[in-house]
Amino acid sequence: MLKDFVKSTPPEADVLKQRLKEERAKLFGYQMKLKEARLPVMVIFEGWDAAGKGSVLGKVIKNIDPRFFQVATMDAPPTADQLRRPFLYRYFVEIPEAGKFKFFDTCWMKEVTDGVCRGTLSDKEYDARIRSINTTERQLTDNGYLVMKFFFHISMKEQKKRLSALKESKNTSWRVSEEDLWQNRHYDECLEIFDRYLNDTNRSNAPWYIIDAKEQKWAELQITQFLNQGIDTALKNSAYAVPILQNTFRMKQMPLLKDIPLDKEISDEEYKDELRKLQDELSELHNEIYRKKIPVVIAYEGWDAAGKGGNIKRITEALDPRGFIVHPIASPEPHEKARHYLWRFWNRLPKTGHIAIFDRTWYGRVMVERLEGFCSENDWQRAYNEMNEFEKELTDFGTVVIKFWVQIDSDTQLARFTDRQNTPEKQWKITDEDWRNREKWDLYEEAINEMLQKTSTSFAPWYVLESVDKKYARIKALKIVVERLKKACRKAE
Question: Domain 257-491, CATH 3.40.50.300 — does that match?
Fold first, then answer.
């Protein structure tokens, strides 16, 4: 793209001034439309060092009410803590709220191209990151985000001139780093790397706009024009459904819930012996996964009163409290509802060597949100593939993902609900919503069956815990966790 870039001729000064005034006014006028349409806008500025990204950004945001935008500066290398999470973690947690702008002064491009320039990123790692970036940008745009990507282009001669001017003044010399000078000395090599990246990530849902950045006002006009065009198109397209993508992951065949026998049980004596033995094993494994820097996600879904809480308790009893956290997932808070539905789960990912246990998960999208009408049919139909992609991102990073469905029958649930209702110290566990959900048992069962069939992948399969006998379900869960962690530790040797 950069090699083929042909500069357009800037308009005369008075024409440029008038057009810039008109485009600034348009951008200012779009703010309330964005807010009303709840359209989140993610604007990414990339480009050559000294190309003027920061200066132009300062000009563009002057046309926007400061309540409607934020700026994220991502040019620093990832911190030690961020390196202990998946590559996209530090970027995904920064995505904008609905109805607002988020401007990124460099984003995921810089980390990737810097890695290629320094020789610290292999071709295989580069390809994996490109896939992750393209998948993420597509997920964002599929979920109603407008992603605008700008590359500030200047010549080697222009870059050298700007860096020299900055170095000459004691007030600006600090802005010139060794990295800036290295880039100018290796301009042609960097051009090849940048051009490859731009071509690899140029997609119709999130295309690149190459900006002639030699003159600041001309650069501002180009960006403001493109922004206005993008916003106008996004507002017009907001009513259209997004295509459902075909699943490309290998799946593990799952039985229908009605075909799962629930008569499995364990004696009290066997339960005590197995519990002690498995918890001792898990305790040792927790030390090993910490030493080998293996992150673990354990996800629980299941019927109300199925025994998720007791199951989780028997796992956490074996763990060092400094190395795990349990996330009870309730209805999303307003600031969570204002972002991509996976955002609140990206925020809760464990760092390497730690365990995150989710008491209810991202699968609410295809169960409660589907059945209660909290999202459109197009939203939940797309979500199966999006959640598979999310889990693939985690497992590619090295995360062990263990997903449990805790299964009981309708009669068992009724008996447990009744017991909770009639036992004062248990009444806090039962709500009117539980009874309402019970009335939709058949609809939920249909949704759960579809979820299990479409999201039990080879890398993140579902495990069904038969929980009419809670003790049996606890032992089964412990056995699965122990076996999966043992396998991960052997692989990490």
Answer: yes
